[in-house]
Write a structure and sequence with these properties.
alpha+beta; binds nickel (II) ion; four-stranded antiparallel sheet; eight-stranded mixed sheet; binds N-oxalylglycine; 294 residues; Jelly Rolls; 10 helices
């Protein structure tokens, strides 16, 4: 567990940084507390997203993904790429929130009517994206410090135009939970991912020592993990952890993921626009990062 607030105050930063380095080097993820987002706001995020998924299918289809291979935004189930693919047991909405001029509002749910307000309007907008950007910078700088590199060198590689996606994951109950996965094993294509877990239903697992470990639910904490872009930036020193989501037989589960990515125009050597490569491989159950190695 990392107190994000302590990371940025001089009297406590040193001790908290040591914990952060340890977490990033061992698991590649941690639970962030004291991140400055109010409990009531986190509840609101969960509530409006759940309301959307509980709507009739026809209503949700109004912001459906357009089924072209490289389109990921909008509402959909798992994307079918090939006949032999095992589909994830999930309903999802993907939205690009940054850069601001690339938002496609036709994919933003109009119902419930406070959905867009919750995720887009000030002051929540500022609360959410500024905060995540600031936190991402603290974490990335902590990584470069621990490698004895110049503090801004990873951030400079990521470029000025941050890319951020929101992904709402809704996992309906399944009577045969041992036969399906909510999300198949994967590592994220991001620099850093923030995950707001369901308050009551556990489901996220991380792979370590060839075993699956449950990621506990900690009230109001955000799970933060590094993604493939960080693994690439650090030349494999910081590993992007493999994780999956399992299904509950009786209860639905909802999570909200926020993916921070590098500017898609910037080359993070040796790849440019990694998210495009990412999805082609993800659906085959392969690790996209393997495709980027030279
Ligand atoms: C993801 C993810 C886990 C979860 O969205 O990439 O890993 O528990 N989600 O929903
Ligand atoms: Ni993930």
């Amino acid at each position: 567990m990392i107190h994000l607030h302590r990371l940025s105050s001089p009297s406590t930063a040193q001790q908290e940084l040591a914990k952060l380095h340890h977490a990033l080097n061992s698991w590649g993820c941690f639970q962030a507390i004291n991140h400055g987002m109010k409990s009531s706001f986190l509840d609101k995020m969960r509530q409006v997203s759940k309301q959307f998924f509980q709507l009739p299918k026809e209503e949700k289809q109004k912001c459906a993904r357009e089924r072209e291979p490289n389109n990921i935004e909008g509402y959909d189930n798992d994307i079918i790429y090939s006949e032999n693919q095992r589909l994830d047991w999930t309903d999802r909405v993907y939205l690009k929130v940054l850069p601001e001029d690339q938002r496609k509002f036709k994919f933003w749910p109009q119902n419930p009517n406070d959905f867009s307000y919750t995720f887009l309007s000030p002051p929540t907008l500022n609360e959410l994206y500024r905060k995540y950007k600031a936190e991402t910078e603290v974490i990335i700088k902590a990584m470069t410090n621990s490698l004895n590199l110049e503090e801004d060198c990873f951030l400079n590689e990521c470029g000025e135009r941050d890319v951020m996606f929101l992904r709402f994951n809704y996992y309906p109950p399944c009577p045969m939970p041992d036969h399906v996965l909510g999300l198949k094993p994967h590592a994220d294509g991001s620099t850093i991912t923030f995950l707001l877990q369901d308050k009551l239903v556990q489901g996220l697992q991380g792979l370590k020592y060839d075993q699956w470990f449950k990621v506990p639910i900690i009230l109001d904490a955000l799970v933060i993990n590094v993604g493939d872009q960080t693994e690439i930036l650090s030349n494999g020193i910081f590993r992007s952890p493999i994780h999956r989501a399992v299904i509950n037989s009786e209860k639905e589960r909802l999570t909200v993921a926020i993916f921070c990515l590098a500017d898609s125009e910037k080359e993070i050597k040796p790849v440019k626009n990694y998210s495009e490569i990412y999805f082609q491989y993800y659906h085959q159950g392969k690790r996209p990062i393997e495709a980027s190695k030279i």
